[in-house]
Amino acid sequence: MEYFRIREVETTEEEIQQRLSLANLDELSTQIFNLDTPNGEEVAIGGLWGEFTLTRSTIKGGVRFTLLECPNALSWTVTTGYPPAPEALVVHMTINRQEIKPEFNEELEEFIEDHCECLEEFLSIVKLGSM
User: Fold this and answer.
1) Contact, 73 vs 27, CB < 8 A?
2) Buried b (16+ CB within 10 A) or exposed e, 61-82
3) Which CATH number applies to 2-129?
4) Could you tell me the pTM of the whole model?
5) N or C end of the chain, less CB within 10 A?
6) Is 127 helix (H, G, I), strand (E, B) or coil?
7) CA angle 61-109-2, nearest 5°?
8) Contact call for residues 73 and 95 (beta carbons, < 8 A)
9) How far is residue 63's CA from residue 96's CA, in Å, rounded to a whole number?
10) pLDDT tens string 70-88
11) Are 129 and 19 in contact (CB under 8 A)?
12) E strand intervals along 60-117
């Protein structure tokens, strides 16, 4: 299953890659949190669905986050500069299921919405702080 969110946030690939780190995860989501200090591009996190290893990778256009032990293979990207919205922030989340329970779908919708709201605020604060 796929979940897309497009937000009118002015940013760049470089800013996304520099600013969205595992060390500042608490500013990027209220639904997941670090359980320890990030080790490079990997950290143990906790949240609604339990404890997982979260990885961060730089990709063309931004970054990808993946929950390694997740039985649903939950992964999401935060990008800009490419379709479907080259001038906006695109958050694309996937799981490896075609059908899920309505409750789980609601949790995923809430997760991506929360993440987008946090990203909008975080990237706006960064811009205001640099003026």
Assistant:
1) no
2) bbbbbbbeebeeebbbbbbbbe
3) 3.30.530
4) 0.93
5) C
6) helix
7) 50
8) yes
9) 19
10) 999 999 999 999 999 999 9
11) no
12) 62-67, 75-79, 89-94
